[in-house]
Amino acid sequence: MKYKSFLSMLTLCMLAACGGSSDPSATDPSTLDEVISSNDANLIASAVKAGSTAGLSAPHRELLLQQALTLAKRYQQQQNATLSDIYGGADLDLTFNLGKNSNSISPGLSTMAVPLILSDEGRGLAVISQYGKGRSLAYGADVLAWMADQSRENQHFPIFNRAFNWVVTGKAAGPLPATIKFATAGYDAKSVTKLLARLGKTPQALTCDFSVSNNSCWQDADVLFFGAGVKDSAELGGQVRKYLESGKAIIYMHPSWGDSVGGRKVLQALGMELGGYGGNFFASVAGMSVGSQRTLSEVLKQGERLVPLIQAIQQMGSSSLSLDLSKDTSSADAITVIHKELENLQSTGGEVFAEPAADLHQLLVLWADLYRPDIEYGKINRTTQPAEFLRTYASDSWLAFNRVSTTVARAGQGDFMPQLAQQLPVSSSAETIEVTIAQADGVTAIGRAAVPGKPVYIEVLAGNGKLAVQSNYLRTWGNPLTDAVSEGYKRPRHPQSFRFPLKASGETVLVTPFGGPLYLNYAGATAGQSVTLKIRGAAKYSHFDFTKAQSDADIDEAVAALKRKDFGWQTAKFVGGEIQQTINYANQAMGTLDPKVYIVDQIKGMLFDSNHIANGYSNMPMSANVAAFCASAGWTCGGPIHRAPGVQHFVGWISACGYLCSGNPSDGFAGISGTGWGHAHELGHNTVQRVMHIELNGKGCLVECDNNILASTHMMRQYGLTGLDNGHLTDHPALYQYIVQNRQNGLSGEAQRADMEKRLWGGDSQDPMRAVHFQLAFLFSKYRAKESVPSMQASMDYFTLLTKADRLVSKEWEAGNKYGMSRYANNTINNHELIYVISSKIIGQDVRKIFAMYGLPLSQTALDSVADLKLPVASEQFYALAQKKFNQVSSGQWLDLSAATPAYPQ
Question: Which residues are in the Peptidase M60 domain (predicted)?
Fold first, then answer.
């Protein structure tokens, strides 16, 4: 039988009821001459219904691509015709400015929506869509009110009028009814009344709330108007889709750059997507407007949104494709457009095979499933095998994760996941797992893994906030389009799953072709609480969780998995930090160490604990010195105010920049080490407080210096506890040499201080700058801890109190001497003066002479505030650490600089 008959067998949704016109004559007859057997037609129809290729075989790949090509051409022709209707047959002014108090609106499903107006930078300003018998129009600002009042952009009225006519009648020049019945939800009916009056029609407002599911008045309306004020509800999206499918005209106006939960649902049901935070507020003029250079032909090309996909499908089917992917990525980009649409659909709770408007996407996902088993990562060359490259790229991109079935590359997933992982046993009965939540919003490891191709079922038993699930938490994963050609296509293009919401009741299913650790994504949760999940179909792997008690059996099981290397990843979870690293990197970083020593002593005990002690976080116990000072000063040094501000994630696999890269997650081309300075440096980037940052006239200890102060505390503590000194210097001799040179100039007073400021803080050498904080720490050990020779512990105590005080001044500031801020009206104090005030308070000495010696300027307000503490003034002095032993704090000697400048000890 002919292909046209086959399509009709796949239900009306496959062509007619989904995405637009139900007129089959709109299909290009030249694409319908493929012959397909009734058996194949039935098999494909069943596969679409089940969302699984279980009944299909390799020969069905070509049939699926043929059908997808037919659908894509049909939608493209339909969208071309619609834009030609709205813009054709009239001399229209195409200029338009949405203004910065607006949001972008873009097509979310290419099968439904197409841009009506794109800004000069390509941002969506207005979109139209079709589904079933209905049509819709949406703008990213309240353009309807502008047109009704004739207040703004009146040159745009002819286009708006034609678009309005098309939504209501199906024809841009079609006659409107003399009386137009309408209803509004979250939108001002007065604006609609004014607009209809301008159009010369009689408005008839219906009084009803058609946003709720039990209304019947929507059937009487000619047009339904939504605005950003529409009430959110679980059934809202389904209601809007029902209205559209039934043939209703729907118009949505978004009034500002802000978000709208209900409005976002309405737009999603219309096949559209609302922009993110800030909307167009920060966009350039070209990002929110259409200039006079825009031509009609350029506008009409917006209807060719699916042309690149059509090209990609045709190229994927070629056996002798000639394509230079280094110069022409249009087909790869078209594949990515569908990938992003699939992500948007699933991340908002939609299911690809339950979404009738995603008929094209369903075919592409099934094709991807059929193609995937034969992929061999590392053996595909984009230069000599462009068609195979595109097919692999598409198979890696066209993904549906929230279903029960998928396929896997039998040879494994390159350096992402070994082939052995496919054989890992998964739980047949449900486990109850308690997942600790460190903060209100974030991502955290669950402690179970998805095995490639095997579905995981997750049910929420207890928890609050918005909960979602995803496999893997990665920031970067390589790019086969730009990776070195010599490396081949090394790994799946998008190995992590999309994030999609967990159902409020019942099971949510996740299946991934690539596998990976499972992560809970949460928002609006209660920090410090936990979420209880029931999980089946998951595997255990090398996961350590030190946010709660672990049995020896749990640790031994994780250690055994680490050594077996049969799963691609190892994860660890601590208070304030989490790690995801490849199993090979984990074993390299561990070396010959006992796994417990590596995970517990090095990563937790050194990397995270050192940072958290220096930052004064409440998850670390206070030393005797710190506790005694806090009690005597009346400071609140424990509790929620000092919680670690967030969980810092580290990923060992691929770096987003350089060898190691900061951010969250921080990533690198290495396993996570608890002893080197690299990861301490990156952790410092993401936890550094203002009291480490000294900026004078745009110079000083800025980014890459301030965070390294925390890395240096790590190295100092590491030597104190283990005797390991592997560098990362704070250059005390260089700092001392600046003092010598400054004194040799014969200057005094402010001139001498300014000269030192220029020498030390105006230069580019960070190591002597960072030594200043440690010299203050040594003063703390001398005066507060009463130590003749500084100890590591007392030096760390200084940083603990400095950072605790930083938070207290910011969050619990009060006038008076509690924090040494008596002369300040509020806590708007610059950083180096804050360091001076707090340091004087916790050291127990007025360190004004020390600050002058280091070239740091102090205002009279700062000086008077410390004077109010009635502290003795510390004399000029310097603790000279032994050469090249700058992490070994007990190796030096005190030098008195009050009267002379002795030579630095050799």
Answer: 441-765
Which is it for the CA torsion 632, 634, 640, 642, positive or negative?
A: negative
| CA 100 to each of CA 188, 223, 259, 278, 682: distance values in angstroms, whole numbers, following the listed order | 21, 28, 14, 9, 36
Using a 10 angstrom Cβ sphere, with 0-12 exposed, 13-18 middle and 19 or more buried, the burial of residue 330 is middle
Q: Name, in order, each residue with C-beta under 8 angstroms of 205's C-beta and a sequence gap of 6 or more.
A: 181, 182, 183, 184, 189, 192, 193
DSSP for 451-476, written as a single string: PTT--EEEEEEE--SEEEEEE---S-
Nearest to 541 by CA among 519, 571, 515: 571
Two tokens, residue 653: 């696999």
DSSP 49-81: HHT--TT--TTHHHHHHHHHHHHHHHHHHHHHH
Q: 31, 350 in Cβ contact below 8 A? A: no
Convert the pLDDT of each residue in 265-282 to its tens digit.
Answer: 999 999 999 999 999 999
CA distance 273 to 137: 13
Domain spanning 419-609: CATH superfamily: Peptidase M60, enhancin-like domain 1 (2.60.120.1250)
Strands 542-545 and 569-574: parallel
- Which amino acid is present at 231? K
Neighbour count for residue 694 (Cβ, 10 Å): 25
* β-strand partners of 272: 107
Q: What are the tokens at 443? A: 């991502």
pLDDT digits over 813-824, tens only?
887 899 999 999
CA nearest 622: which of 816, 398, 800?
A: 800
Q: Which two tokens stand for residue 315?
A: 């190229």
Judged by DSSP in three states, 9 sits in helix
Neighbours of 422 (CB within 10 A): 19
433: amino acid identity, one letter: I
Own/partner long-range contacts of 165-168 (Cβ < 8 Å, ≥24 apart): 166/82, 166/85, 166/86, 166/128, 166/135, 166/137, 167/128, 167/135, 167/136, 167/137, 167/223, 167/249, 167/250, 167/251, 168/222, 168/223, 168/249
Burial readout 70-89 (b: 16 or more C-beta within 10 A, e: otherwise): bbbbbbbbbbbebbebbbee
pLDDT, one tens digit per residue, over 502-523 is 999 999 999 999 999 999 999 9
Q: Which residues lie closer than 8 Å to 278 by C-beta, 6 or more apart?
A: 257
When pLDDT is averaged across residues 528-546 and rounded to a whole number, the result is: 94
Q: What is the mean pLDDT of the chain?
A: 93
Question: How are beta strands 466-471 and 530-536 bridged, if at all?
Answer: unpaired
Q: Which of 420, 426, 404 is nearest to 539 (CA)?
A: 426
